[in-house]
Amino acid sequence: MKKFIDTEVRWGIIGVGNVCEVKSAPAMQKIPSSQLIAVMRRDADKAADYAKRHGVPKWYSDAGELINDPDINAIYIATPPDSHLLYTKMAAAAGKPVYVEKPMAKTYKECLEMIKVCEDAGVPLFAAYYRRTLPHFLKIKSLIKEGAIGEVRTLHIEMRKVPEPDIVADSEKNWRVFPEIAGGGYFYDLASHQLDFLDFLFGEITDASGFSANQAGLYPAEDLVAASFKFENGVLGTGNWCFTAASISETDLTVISGSKGQISYKTFGEGRVILETDQDGRREFHFELPQHIQYYLIEKIVGELLGSDKSPSTGVTAARTNWVMEQIVY
């Protein structure tokens, strides 16, 4: 197995916002052979505050300075999607592996460019689709592989959410609903996790189409999406997403139907899987989630960089999700 780093992964993070408080960055300080060396935000006071609170030795307000710090040998890009390509180019030019937040970029075209610059530089590219490593999602994969529901026929995603309480027409405060920054709206933010996990289960989605609308007019991006898609193995899928629903109708449910039964689960918030079959009825599986939700994926990435493991989430797999979302929304 190829080794990219000799003994220890020394991380530098660009953009230490909310995702870095609990979900991701603290894991880098707890995983063996991994250290968080420096963080960067354009607001120097916020960068210094994060470093102080989390015990990080260095902080920067300039991304170039962090990327070129000789003490750092891997870069985590945790900024909004519109800057992922730029920072990936800079990190690749410095010869440093890249771990980038999801969605991987603003557009599929940008994803392809990120893959190419990393390939040309000989550095690996990873994306933060951490559900590929969480125990309840691995349980779903194993149930399907062992034939618990027989031959998979179809699947359906249903997501309805009330409008976020902090919705404002201000890209500084809520970049997720500005397509020029995020690529799309909450669909890009949340459905990307759902679609990427299904890619992990069934392989590539080869055909996808859909409709999108902005019905409520609360922000520039779409708030309603309906889609259908086909996987390379022949499984068919559909989905409905509404981000301006009534609280009474809120739901997060994916159902995978097979010739002998079905599996249902929530993508967000709980480690529970429900298996129902004609033969054995209903069974539930419960799993404890890690304190730092990206821990297992970052552990895999550290292992791959040190030549002892393999990450299931790469730039190549993540780009496929961007392609699917574009087929559905645009």
List the SSEs and their pairings.
Blueprint (H helix, E strand, L loop, with lengths): L8 E6 L10 H4 L5 E7 L3 H11 L3 E3 L2 H5 L6 E4 L6 H10 L4 E3 L7 H14 L3 E3 L7 H11 L6 E9 L18 H4 L3 H17 L2 E9 L10 E8 L4 E7 L8 E8 L2 E5 L6 E6 L3 E6 L8 H11 L9 H15 L1
Parallel strand pairs: 1-2, 1-4, 2-3, 4-5, 5-6, 7-10
Antiparallel strand pairs: 7-11, 8-9, 9-10, 11-12, 12-13, 13-14
**Count of folded domains:** 2
Order of helices and strands: EHEHEHEHEHEHEHHEEEEEEEHH
Going by CATH, the architecture of the largest domain would be 2-Layer Sandwich
Distance between the amino and carboxyl termini:
40 Å
Could you say what the CATH topology of the largest domain is called? Dihydrodipicolinate Reductase, domain 2
**What's the CATH class of the largest domain, please?**
Alpha Beta
Poorly predicted segments: none
Amount of beta strand: 25-35%
> Biggest β-sheet: count, sense, barrel?
8 strands, mixed
* Total DSSP helices: 10
Strand order of the main beta sheet, please? 8-9-10-7-11-12-13-14
Helicity level? 25-40%
Mean pLDDT: 96
What radius of gyration results from the CA coordinates?
20 Å
Within CATH, the superfamily of the largest domain carries the name: Dihydrodipicolinate Reductase, domain 2
The beta-strand count equals 14
Overall outline: globular
